């Protein structure tokens, strides 16, 4: 190597230009060094980026990945391990939101809905299986829970079996047979028969329970005392009313009437016993509960078209409310409705017009009581009772032939029904107005006439379908029919 070449290489190295390593004659690389003097407070500039590879094949290689989410460092995904989540850290939810906001919001919404449904299910289970059974020992409660489970599955056989086991366990644990827990368990046992529409079985079991309770009450009369006797009698009369309801469902109106009558007699006896209690003593019965017994039997008489008895019982129930309440409005309106439907006997001095006017007065009295009741005592029952009373007054005016007055009452009933949200009454008032308009126009057709007309139209259609001839009837073919044909 010449001296000029060596000098040139040293100069290029001093100017920080890369150069090929020079080789000496023996083939070993020549180490080139250069010394630079450090200047104080000088700044070292970063080297400018240079293209390291010029080959197109090398340039097509994938470049280094960059994180799409600036909140998540890319180093977390370069370890080769699956991504881990810590649900107790806020950073996890922040990263999930920035990864995909829409999916994160949807997932959170579904999580909230799931937790809400789970809370409702837990609350329903608590109020169905835990809270009602907390007074029972565990040996009894476990069979009741199983019975309720099988009842929900409509497995009646297993349900009845577990109720029987619960009753047996209660007897073995010497639970009081007159307590609300034991009697309630037996009522639940009879309620299964009602759900299966085996009303006769339900009546049989409840009759047995009522007889057992009355027998024990007579034996333990001194132990119970007056207040205890009233409490147990409250449960006995409630069972009796339930027996009557099941007998009505079983189409046994005769026995249902006897059962209701027994309930009324015992309720009157209870009223007398409770009235003799001092003010300091507990009174198990309320006037509303006693009135409900009278109202229940009045409804039975109304369904069986015994309007005289129904009117009397409705009045007795209404007189128990002092001062009058919103339920009094319903009862007085029922008195007027029964009086309007009652058929006058042949020897009755009252005519039909006088009867309707009397019914109208009861309905107007119900409306006056409804107007006198102010909030907070005034409830939705007052508004509904007032709507029904206005509608019934309109029907009375219609039967009296006063179409204009009837139309006015129906319009008032419809307006009030719309204001209080009483949909059924609103529709009925609209139908009544159409009926009044048809009567005034002379185009009204009664239900009986409409039924006859429809039957006549159907008969004509049947005749036209068979060619205008009556339908063919084949005589019964007997053993001698062929012989008669040959003759």
TrEMBL record:
Membrane spanning residue stretches: 104-126
Keywords: Membrane, Transmembrane, Transmembrane helix
GO MF, any single term: misfolded protein binding
Record InterPro entries: Mrg3-like (IPR040201), TPR-like_helical_dom_sf (IPR011990), TPR_rpt (IPR019734)
Gene Ontology BP terms: protein quality control for misfolded or incompletely synthesized proteins
Gene3D superfamilies in alphabetical order: Tetratricopeptide repeat domain
GO CC, any one term: i-AAA complex
Residue stretches of biased makeup (Basic and acidic residues): 447-465
Region of interest (Disordered), ranges: 438-487
Protein name: Uncharacterized protein
Organism name: Arthrobotrys musiformis
């Amino acid at each position: 190597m010449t001296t000029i070449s060596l000098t040139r290489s040293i100069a290029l190295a001093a100017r920080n230009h890369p150069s090929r390593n020079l080789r000496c004659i023996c083939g070993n690389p020549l180490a080139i060094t250069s010394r630079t003097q450090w200047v104080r407070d000088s700044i070292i500039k970063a080297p400018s980026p240079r293209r390291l590879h010029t080959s197109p094949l090398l340039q097509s290689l994938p470049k280094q990945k960059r994180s799409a989410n600036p909140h998540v460092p890319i180093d977390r995904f370069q370890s080769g391990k699956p991504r881990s989540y810590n649900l107790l850290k806020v950073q996890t939810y922040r990263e999930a939101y920035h990864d995909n906001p829409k999916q994160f919001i949807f997932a959170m919404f579904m999580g909230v809905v799931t937790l809400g449904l789970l809370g409702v299910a837990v609350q329903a289970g608590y109020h169905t299986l835990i809270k009602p059974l907390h007074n029972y020992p565990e040996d009894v409660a476990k069979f009741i829970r199983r019975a309720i489970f099988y009842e929900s599955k409509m497995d009646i056989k297993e349900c009845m079996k577990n109720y029987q086991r619960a009753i047996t366990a209660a007897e073995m644990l010497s639970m009081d047979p007159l307590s609300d827990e034991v009697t309630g368990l037996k009522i639940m046992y009879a309620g299964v028969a009602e759900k299966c529409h085996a009303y006769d079985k339900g009546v049989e079991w409840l009759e047995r329970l009522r007889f057992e309770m009355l027998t024990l009450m007579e034996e333990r009369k001194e132990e119970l005392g007056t207040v205890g006797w009233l409490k147990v009698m409250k449960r006995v009369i409630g069972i009796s009313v339930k027996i009557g309801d099941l007998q009505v469902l079983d189409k046994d109106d005769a026995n249902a009437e006897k059962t209701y009558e027994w309930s009324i007699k015992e309720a009157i006896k209870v009223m007398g016993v409770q009235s003799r209690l001092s003010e300091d003593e507990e009174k198990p019965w309320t006037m509303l509960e006693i009135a409900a017994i009278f109202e229940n039997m009045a409804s039975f008489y109304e369904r069986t078209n015994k309007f005289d008895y129904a009117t009397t019982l409705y009045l007795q129930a209404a007189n128990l409310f002092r001062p009058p309440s919103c339920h009094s409005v319903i009862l007085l309106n029922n008195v007027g409705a029964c009086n309007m439907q009652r058929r006058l006997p042949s020897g009755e001095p009252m005519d039909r017009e006088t009867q309707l006017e009397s019914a109208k007065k009861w309905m107007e009295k119900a409306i006056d009581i409804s107007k006198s009741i102010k909030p907070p005592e005034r409830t939705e029952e007052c508004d509904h009772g007032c709507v029904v009373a206005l509608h019934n007054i309109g029907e009375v005016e219609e039967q009296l032939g006063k179409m204009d007055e009837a139309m006015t009452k129906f319009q008032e009933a419809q307006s009030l029904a719309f204001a209080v949200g009483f949909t059924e009454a609103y529709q009925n008032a609209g139908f009544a107005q159409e009926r009044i308009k048809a009567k005034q126009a002379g185009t009204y057709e009664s239900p009986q006439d409409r039924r006859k007309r429809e039957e006549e139209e159907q008969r004509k259609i049947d005749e036209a379908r068979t060619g205008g001839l009556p339908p063919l009837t084949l005589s019964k073919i007997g053993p001698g029919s062929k012989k008669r044909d040959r003759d």
